[in-house]
Each structure stands twice: as structure tokens, then as C-alpha cells.
Amino acid sequence: MLAGAAVMTAAPVHAQDASLPPQGRIALSAVHDPDPHEALLTLHGTLAVQDTVLDLCRGFVGEAPDLVLDYRAQGFDLFISARPDNLSGEEGVSLAIQGPGGDWRCSGLRWGSLRDFPEIRFEDPVSGPYRIWIGRAKMEAPQSARLFISRFGFGAEPDRVSGGLGYIDISSIDAIALGYDFSPNPHEETRTARGHIDGRAALGEDCGGYFDSRAVLALNYFAAGGVEELVLSADSEHGPVALAFQRWGEWGCDAGGAEGRPEIVLGLPEPWTVRSILVWAGVHERGAEYPAVIRLTRRPASE
What we know:
By secondary structure, the chain is mostly beta strands. The protein folds into two domains: 24-150, Jelly Rolls, CATH 2.60.120; 170-300, Jelly Rolls. It contains two helices and 22 strands. The strands form six sheets. The chain has a five-stranded mixed β-sheet, with no helix packed on it. A hairpin with a 5-residue loop joins β7 and β8.
């Protein structure tokens, strides 16, 4: 999956030679320090990546990979992104990555744009070598770029607080807006509960369940007087559910006990404000996936 550009996969036309020695080779497990890992690479390729991998890929690359990442998966997503070393310049860069299974993904310099920050996300990745090419927009002069490898997100400063649950792909999140007197009460939304990231590893020992790195729901709530608190809950007829949320800069979760019916009291929001709540719907068995009903209820604070 990808934020910011399309990710494509295809069998390559072998002008790029993954067997050639790369500029560098590193070995990382999913949990590594520092995170993100950062590498400075010099770009001087002359092969048009769109002619060798996919028509929709862009940039000029060399035959050999710029970097080979020998990766050991540990249940987190893998985020790989690149930035031009000189951010004040006009030229962007692109990414082309061959995964351990031989499939290709690419990002950046799309639709004729010369200024781009490519980002590729491998969801529940496998262990093995990831061969990485960084493409430059033009062939006229050498260019350098910084490559970032993380379990948290893209770029030099991803959100580390969430332990891997903080990846926000706006295009994939359904956003809803509710006023202080919303009706019906409770408000219900059906979303897919799923996950492979251990909540205990991501958010702490008290957080059971497995979650996807992406939130399933973004709630914008307009609060009025401070007489009613908000309660977030979920259940599913198909299996147990866990909930995680980010509310007003704080994280929390509830696995819902053995039955998997979580209920989280969000408390009294500050009056006459609009607050955003991001919600993750998880499962008790890693890799499970089924629909769940998420409820937001307002009730008197004394209940």
C-alpha cells in the first residue's frame, strides 16, 4: 500500500539487474534503532525505469540496486520512503523496489511531476532481500537522495508514539462528522476489523489484540456543554473485536475481554470545540478479518 502515489506491481523486463553489487547492503529487523534508518545515496542512473519495470513508473536508475535491505519481519509494516537531499531543489526522486518474491513496486515522479517524495508501504511484509532503486528526474547531473526505512511511517520523523499504528492514509479512512446532539444515539458504523500488529508491542502490555496500521474511522465531534460523556464500543457476530483510538493527542485501547466487546469511556470533551478521534478496529487472532459494528454513544456522565 502507498500514501501519496500509486503503487504498482509487475514482472520486470530485466534491464535492471538485481544480481549486480549495490551501492550498499544493510541488514535490519523490523524493530531497529534508530528508527527510521537513514541512508544517503548518490544517483547517477541513465535507465528509464518506465521502460524496464512498468509504464507508470518514472525516473532514471542504474542497473544495480542502490541499496539491498536484508529484512527480518517481526509483525510490523515496512515503510520505505525517499527525499531529495537538497529539499530546496526543484527535482524530485522516485522509488522502485523488488521484494523477496520478485514483485515490483514503484512510486514517485508521476503524471509528469518533477518534485515528488515517493513512499511505499509493505503491509505485513515477509523476511528477505528488498532491492531498492532510487530514480532521478533527469539525467543531466548527479543527484543525491536520503532513504528512510521504518516501522512507524514515512520520512525522517514518523510518529513513534503509536508504536506502528500511526500511519494515516487519508484516502483510505472514512471520515464522519457528528454534532453534540447526534441522532440516533448510539451512532453506528460498520467497518472491517483486522490486524497483524500486536497491540502489546505497539501500545503497551495492557493493549491486547492485533491491529492494522491504518485507522478505519476518523470522527470529528462538535462538543457542547459538559453534561454528556462519549463512549466508544464495538462488537461483531463473526468474532471478538479490539479497539484502539487516538483522542486529543492521547492513545488508548481495549481488547474487550474474552468476548471481545470493548467499551471505552472517552469522557467529557471540552465544550464548544471540534475534536477528532481516530479509531482502529482489531481482532484477537492475528490475520483474522471480519465486519464489526463500531458505536459512539453519548450518555450522562453520572452513568
